[in-house]
């Protein structure tokens, strides 16, 4: 399974390298339909987190680093780190955000030797792969082990009226159950926002809190 997963990651790397060379610093480089929709979904993720101003943040699958630009608009003064598997997208990110840290990293092969207050994952789970569910499970379990406060991610939903070829649509209940049963008792799922005005919600976002569970008895 490990070799098959790495083959899929290599294909994704080649795919996004090609998009980066073709589109440069634009939403198209990360398969976004427009800057408006890109910023909408990224802001949904940021809105689901808290205490970000001085936090250490990991942008996993950072692409061209546009999440950092939105953080700066919010007065971000913390530490930003971007991981991606596309060398082309990382080169673009470094050109536009020269003082931030961007790393070419396959977390299945290269250990993470630090922790982060918050981890954000946008669009990473959208491409149709041979092992989509396993890929999500491994990414979330790997990253959540390095989280101090929380992890927020999005995915496409099966509750849609149209599915695009080449993309993967998750059952939100399956995602919730996996996270709740295997990662943390503190799970929030938001499936109510519209990325495009007037279009039914076709994706969802999930927040996983690292806060330890505290049992509450009848007399507490």
Spatial order of strands in the largest sheet? 3-2-1-4-5-7-6
So what's the overall shape?
A: globular
Compressed to H and E, one letter per element, the order equals HHEHEHEEHEHEE
Structural class: alpha/beta
- Domain count: the total is 1
Radius of gyration: 17 Å
Which CATH architecture would you pick?
Answer: 3-Layer(aba) Sandwich
Total helices: the number is: 6
The CATH superfamily turns out to be Vaccinia Virus protein VP39
The CATH class label is Alpha Beta
Question: Tell me about the biggest sheet?
Answer: 7 strands, mixed
| N-to-C CA distance | 47 Å
Percent helix, as a range, is 25-40%
pLDDT < 50 stretches:
none
Provide the CATH topology.
Rossmann fold
Q: Layout of SSEs?
A:
Blueprint: H1 2-23, H2 35-48, E1 56-60, H3 66-73, E2 79-84, H4 87-96, E3 101-104, E4 116-121, H5 132-144, E5 147-156, H6 172-182, E6 187-190, E7 203-209
Parallel strand pairs: 1-2, 1-4, 2-3, 4-5
Antiparallel strand pairs: 5-7, 6-7
Helix pairs in contact: 1-4, 2-3
Question: Would you mind describing this structure in some detail?
Answer:
The chain is α/β, with parallel strands linked by helices and 220 residues long. The chain has one domain: Rossmann fold (3-Layer(aba) Sandwich). Helix content is 35%, strand content 19%. It is built from six helices and seven strands. It has helices spanning 2-23, 35-48, 66-73, 87-96, 132-144, 172-182, and strands spanning 56-60, 79-84, 101-104, 116-121, 147-156, 187-190, 203-209. Strand 4, helix 5 (132-144) and strand 5 (147-156) form a beta-alpha-beta unit. Helix 1 crosses helix 4 and helix 2 crosses helix 3. It is globular. It starts with a helix and ends in an 11-residue tail after the last strand. 30% of the residues are buried.
């Amino acid at each position: 399974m490990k070799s098959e997963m790495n083959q899929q990651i290599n294909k994704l790397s080649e795919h996004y390298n090609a998009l980066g060379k073709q589109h440069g610093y634009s939403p198209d480089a990360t398969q976004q339909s427009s800057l408006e929709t890109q910023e909408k979904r990224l802001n949904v993720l940021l809105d689901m987190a808290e205490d970000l101003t001085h936090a250490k943040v990991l942008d996993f699958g950072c692409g061209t680093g546009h999440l950092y630009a939105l953080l700066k608009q919010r007065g971000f003064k913390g530490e930003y780190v971007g991981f991606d598997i596309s060398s082309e997208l990382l080169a673009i990110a470094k050109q536009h955000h020269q003082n931030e840290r961007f790393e070419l990293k396959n977390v299945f092969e290269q250990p993470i030797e630090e922790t982060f207050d918050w981890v954000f994952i946008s669009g990473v789970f959208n491409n149709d792969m041979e092992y989509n569910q396993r890929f999500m499970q491994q990414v979330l379990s790997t990253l959540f082990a390095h989280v101090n406060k929380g992890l927020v991610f999005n995915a496409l939903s099966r509750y849609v009226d149209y599915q695009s070829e080449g993309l993967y649509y998750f059952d939100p209940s399956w995602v919730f159950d996996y996270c709740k049963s295997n990662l943390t008792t503190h799970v929030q799922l938001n499936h109510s926002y519209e990325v495009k005005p007037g279009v039914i919600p076709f994706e969802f976002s999930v927040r996983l809190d690292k806060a330890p569970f505290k049992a509450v008895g009848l007399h507490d």
